[in-house]
Design brief:
The complex is a heterodimer of chains A (89) and B (150). Chain A contains 2 helices and 5 strands; from the N terminus they run E-E-H-H-E-E-E. Chain A has 89 residues and is an alpha+beta fold. Chain A has one domain: Beta-grasp domain (Ubiquitin-like (UB roll), Roll), CATH 3.10.20.30. In chain A, strand 3 and strand 4 form a beta hairpin. In chain A, helix 1 runs antiparallel to helix 2. The longest helix of chain A is centred in the middle third of the chain and has 15 residues. Chain A is globular. The termini of chain A are far apart. The mean pLDDT of chain B is 94. The longest helix of chain B has 18 residues. In chain B, helix 2 runs antiparallel to helix 3. Chain B contains 3 helices and 8 strands. In chain B, strands 1, 2, 3, 4, 5, 6, 7 and 8 form an 8-stranded mixed beta sheet that branches. Classes of the chains: A alpha+beta (89), B alpha+beta (150). Chains A and B meet through strand 3 of A and strand 4, helix 2, helix 3 and strand 7 of B.
Chain lengths: 89, 150
């Protein structure tokens, strides 16, 4: 199934389109998304270590706007947001 | 009473007057207006502006949660709070955030204003990209949001 990862903050550097689309297996979780995104960075940014650190220190937000754990199961066509470390004000 | 909003700076600017109109009431004897503005220096770099990015829904949700928590954590039930945060590109000196609070007494107002800004810094998904005189720009390092891995 296809899912979209909406990019925010520093993760916007990962794509000019402000989102990345992945093909994932049914019953995939946020943990699988982290692995997919690191693969994506390996392929598109020569494994940029700073970008990989961002993936590992980010939270993820479900389509119904909750911060979800790594065990959260993604539903078909769900739009997930990556939430890198924050700092407004 | 709470007003909580993200403002796209391309559409309008943040207004202290609007904040004042919202919190103004003869029920309250103390008001505090906090504004955050774009500063010209950070880590010895000359800053010319900041782009703010926001997950709007999560941010307004976090403002609501912070407001509600003040009831229990600070025991301030009777209050009026106005929070707006900008998103988009801001020049030096422009206002990025307004937190206006009105309470019955000054000790409550000072406490509440400080509590809100510190919690926003910790919990609200907002990001800053600084722009410098040498045409470079960089996303500032932030704090990881609470993230249960298990």
């Amino acid at each position: 199934m296809k899912i979209k990862i909406e990019l925010f903050g520093v993760s916007r550097e990962f794509s000019k389109n402000n989102l990345i689309e992945f093909e994932i297996n049914n019953n995939s979780t946020i943990k699988d998304i982290r692995i997919k995104m690191i693969d994506y960075l390996d392929q598109n940014f020569n494994g940029n270590e700073n970008f990989k650190k961002i993936i590992n220190s980010s939270a993820f937000c479900s389509q119904n706007n909750n911060i979800v754990s790594d065990n959260y199961k993604i539903t078909k066509n769900e739009k997930i947001a990556i939430i890198p470390p924050i700092g407004g004000g | 009473m709470l007003h909580a909003k993200i403002i796209d700076i391309k559409e309008k600017k943040l207004s202290i007057k609007k904040a004042e109109n919202f919190i103004s009431s003869s029920n309250y004897g103390a008001s505090i207006f906090f504004t955050g503005t774009v500063r010209n220096q950070n880590y010895n770099k000359s800053v010319i502006g900041i782009t703010y990015d926001s997950h709007d829904t999560l941010v307004t949700k976090s403002f609501q949660e912070i407001y509600n928590e003040a009831d229990q954590k600070l025991n301030i039930k009777d209050k009026s709070v106005y929070i707006e945060h900008a998103k988009g590109y801001l020049n030096l000196g422009e206002i990025s955030i307004i937190i206006a609070v009105a309470c019955k007494h000054r000790d409550q107002a000072y406490l509440l204003s400080r509590y809100i800004i510190e919690e926003i810094k910790k919990r609200s998904p907002i990001w800053k990209k600084e722009h410098y005189e040498n045409s470079e720009s960089t996303w500032l390092k932030g704090n990881p949001i609470i993230n249960e891995r298990n």
